[in-house]
Specification:
Largest sheet: 2 strands, antiparallel
Number of domains: 1
CATH class: Mainly Alpha
Strand order of the largest sheet: 1-2
Structural class: alpha+beta
Order of helices and strands: HHHHEEH
Organism: Streptomyces prasinosporus
Radius of gyration: 15 Å
CATH architecture: Orthogonal Bundle
CATH topology: Arc Repressor Mutant, subunit A
Distance between the termini: 45 Å
Protein name: Replication initiation protein, RepL2
CATH superfamily: Winged helix-like DNA-binding domain superfamily/Winged helix DNA-binding domain
Helix content: 40-55%
């Protein structure tokens, strides 16, 4: 992990200060877990829950809250399994292109 990665993770931790502990844990788990090319964490909710010591239902409910608040977004779906990634909001990316005057 580079110094820049550490700084981004600290900024993300600071940005989630108003969330519950479980919500912050889910966001940080998705931030730190290995991802595919699309940025998705290709792991089931049950495996991720076990990784952080949560029950699967609590993890799924918490992840749903984090999705609803805009921190995670669905990336891929394979059969009945959905994979998620951090949203641009969580990554601090500006997804709105400013308008400019036509000349």
């Amino acid at each position: 992990m580079t110094s820049d990665d550490k700084q981004k993770n600290l900024e993300l931790l600071q940005a989630t200060a108003g969330m519950t502990a479980n919500q912050r844990l889910v966001v940080m788990l998705y931030a730190l877990h290995p991802t595919d090319r699309a940025g998705a964490v290709v792991e089931t909710a049950a495996n991720l829950a076990a990784l952080v010591g949560m029950s699967a239902p609590v993890f799924s409910r918490t992840r749903k809250q984090v999705i609803e608040s805009g921190w995670l977004e669905e990336s891929d779906k394979l059969a009945h399994i959905r994979y998620y990634r951090l949203s641009p909001k969580a990554l601090g990316e500006n997804v709105v292109v400013p308008l400019r005057r036509a000349t």
